[in-house]
Design a protein that fits this description.
The chain has three helices and three strands; from the N terminus they run αβββαα. It has helices spanning 3-11, 68-74, 95-101, and strands spanning 26-28, 34-44, 49-56. A three-stranded antiparallel sheet has the order 1-2-3, with no helix packed on it. The chain is elongated. The chain starts with a helix and ends with a helix. The mean pLDDT is 84.
């Protein structure tokens, strides 16, 4: 990623929300925002059986786990996936400094 773009994204506090569309549990067809979740089922009243939970790719739950293949495809954009924890610690990496250090 271009360092100027990286600087600008950081300046505006850009974040990518961890969502079903990036989760290992979400299953979606390419042409739609709607799919199902492997992690959650429910008992459907009409069918009287367990069904996969219908979800939207922009939704999320506590069981979010990044899909490694999607993460690989996102390349350095994964730096902007919002972390679950709210408070920054001394172990957090400054991504701009990191990107400059690996050039």
């Amino acid at each position: 990623m271009d360092l100027n773009k990286l600087d600008k994204l950081k300046e505006i506090d850009y974040e990518i929300n961890p969502c079903c569309g990036l989760c290992i549990h979400g299953k979606f067809r390419m042409e739609t925002d709607w799919g199902t979740c492997d992690a959650h089922n429910y008992e459907h009243l009409k069918h009287e059986r367990e069904c996969e939970l219908s979800i939207n790719k922009f939704g999320f739950c506590k069981m979010f786990e990044i899909n490694i293949m999607k993460q690989y495809g996102m390349k350095s954009w994964t730096l902007f996936i919002k972390k679950k924890k709210e408070n920054k610690t001394e172990d957090d990496v400054d991504f701009v400094e990191y990107m400059k250090s690996i050039e």
